[in-house]
Amino acid sequence: MKILLDPGHGCNTPGKRSPDGRFLEYRFNRDIASAVAKQLTFSGYDATLLVTEEYDISLRARVERVNTWCRQLGRRNVCLVSIHANAAGNGKQWMNARGWCCYTSRGQTAGDRLATCLYQTAELYLPGHKIRKDYSDGDPDFESDFTILSRTLCAAALTESLFYDNPEDLRFLESYTGRQAIIDLHVKGIINYVSHI
Questions:
Q1: Which domains, ranges and CATH numbers included, belong to the chain?
Q2: d(CA 76, CA 60)
Q3: Beta 46-49 vs 2-7: how paired, if at all?
Q4: Which residues does 93 contact at the CB level (< 8 Å), separation at least 6?
Q5: For the segment 136-193, what is each residue's pLDDT rounded down to a tens digit?
Q6: Packing angle of the helix pair 176-195, 110-125 (nearest 10 deg)
Q7: Contact present, 111 and 157 (Cβ < 8 Å)
Q8: Are 149 and 105 in contact (CB under 8 A)?
Q9: Which of 2, 61, 140, 181 could bond 133 through an S-S bridge, CB–CB 3.0 to 4.6 Å?
Q10: Residue spans of alpha helices (H) in the chain
């Protein structure tokens, strides 16, 4: 199984930072994705960063990179996790929204099982934190037409790891304990998914 880790956004993406400017989402996404890839590789899994560039890569290009792997290996032999952190506002003021969540494309897809595995590990590694869920279709993930989910051929999920425009969530995201928890939940969730295919 080829595991693709997509760090969202880039150094040239406007906004995407905490209201005080100290937290840059693109940097966080790359740090987490790199650490997840490293741990998975160390554990014997075939994990690759989809984007190694610091600047933003268009969604069209990201989708093509994923689908190239799918065409080479077969879509059932590839999975994608796009890693993000969330924001509720326009970046100019602190907000009240909190929590972790995961998205898949609309309808019942292979991504739903991947997302469920990530939800299960989020519950374990984020005790005391809100886990945001939408059971309207019978599973916990939110559904969206995000291009990275709807246009890719393989099982795909997008995680939103807490809110960087909430002071409490941000403190956790900036702490060593918080970052390690985010890394671990991704690693263990992906392993659980791959192990039960």
A1: 2-195 (3.40.630.40)
A2: 21
A3: parallel
A4: 19, 165
A5: 989 999 999 999 999 999 999 999 999 999 999 999 999 999 999 999 999 999 999 9
A6: 140
A7: yes
A8: yes
A9: 140
A10: 25-42, 59-73, 110-125, 147-150, 167-174, 176-195
